[in-house]
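Re: [help] complex structure
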Amino acid sequence: MTLEEFNAGDLHIALNAAANEGLRLDWTGRSSHRDPARILASFFGDALHRASSAGVIEMHFEKLEHFNSSTISALIGFVRAARKAGVELRLVFDPDLKWQSLSFDALRVFEKPDGLFKLQPVAVVRELRR
Amino acid sequence: MKTTKSDPLDQYIQSIVHSWSKTLAALGVALIPAFFILDYFMMPPEHLTRFAIYRVVTTAIVVAQYFVLRGTRPGPTSILHGYFFSLVTSEMIVLMTVYLGGFNSTYYAGLNLVMIAVNLMLPWRPLHSAINSALIIALYVVTNVLHSAAEPINALLLINNFYFLISTAIISVAINWVKERLIRQEFLSRSDLQTARDSLWSEMAVAKRIQTSLLPRVQRLAGCRVAAIMVPAEEVGGDYYDVIQNDAGEIWISIGDVSGHGVESGLIMMMTQTSIFTAVNKSQGLAPSMLLDQVNSVLTENIARLGTDRYMTLSAIVLRDDQVVFAGKHQDILIYRHATGQVEAVPTEGTWLGVVESLRGCVPDRTVTMADDDVALLFTDGVTEATNRIGRMYGEADLSSALARNARLDVEAIVTNIAKEVRDHMHTQADDFTLLVFKKDRQALAARGT
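Output below.
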């Protein structure tokens, strides 16, 4: 069930609540806003607040066409905020898309033994859920 | 302050007085004949022909005034159009009152309309409103005194007429005073904003010039030929590259991109340039990963002090005899293999700068061989993400093909040709783009005895 949607220009994020799986955010379109951290702050804050009970947020980027470097800055800020809040964050991406593998591989530095941050190729996630 | 801005303010007021006088004349051309309908129903039939002639002549004069306004430029005399329009239309009304009983006629009410239309439409100073109103009233009095002497004057009606005319004049002057203050205030605010904007743009232009002047274009180093180009987008961006040969003869090539745009990104790029330049000149035999760790320490600290969320993709490369050693997560390194004619995409690994406090263990050093006449191409995302009219990105595949087609040329020609292809592909440039090509120069290496 879609709880809420974020729309800004060509970017759309649908916030869904999956049973026993916490929150799921599906990113589609293109994120090319000049200051995405500012426009996403409230949506991210709300998602984090809702996830504090479920404990898990899963963001899906595999259908996203493109995001700019400022969006990654916003995402890095969210990764740090989620860790601080003790919320598990999973980013699902498509490594076959060059721009996605370039961007998400660099975020592996946030993967720690505490398991609060995970990068998951979409094919692996699909396989696990079969 | 007020004195220095009075001339432009006067010019501004003259321009709008001139422009709005045209509107006023157009209004006159429409309303003066239209009021003949009122004449037709209200006036004695014996006066209709005369009044029609008055209206036709007055309309013709106002039409002529409209074309004079269109054919002339605003200037100090533009305000005369307001007076002229007032006097011509008022005289027409006053002449009508003469034939309708002089001061006893209610047709004087048209003068109130002229006073309101002219004084409220034109943004001239309150003094002009006062003089214009006084002239209209004087015209009314003098003309009727001269032509209606035989008519007995109803004192009460006369007081009534003056009461309304003078009240209209006072209201016009008061509104004009308020309006003039608002126009002055708006002009000064706009002028201040323009000054601030011009100052900001000139600062931005300086920042952009400093940034681009830090980037070398073509270098013939001992042992290596390098050519590069950075094509900036409209504002200050974060693309960075450098080619440095230190005192020990080590050749360092680096390329990166600060996230976001604007002066902040440009400043971080400049910090990076300075840090790398200092580090490679201070230490010899430094591994690229160590260099990145040192630069990252500086950047992370400074980014935190700036209170911003920027990060930077950066690859640092040091050239060895038959190899290049590199570290740092950026775009792939494309290497044209002369022996096979193929282009190999060498991925970069690790993470970016400014993301974590220490890069130790996060950014590995990698080595790749480079044979004679192999060509390496480094680039920023502005190249592969250059988008055409239908939204298709240029992409790494197109870039590899372009490299393969041009690899046998001189390094400068390779860069020039590929940059042209990217420019031809892109619809509008949204981001800086950078291309850097290098070839080992074996003859120079041999001559140097390395």
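The longest strand of chain A covers residues 22-31.
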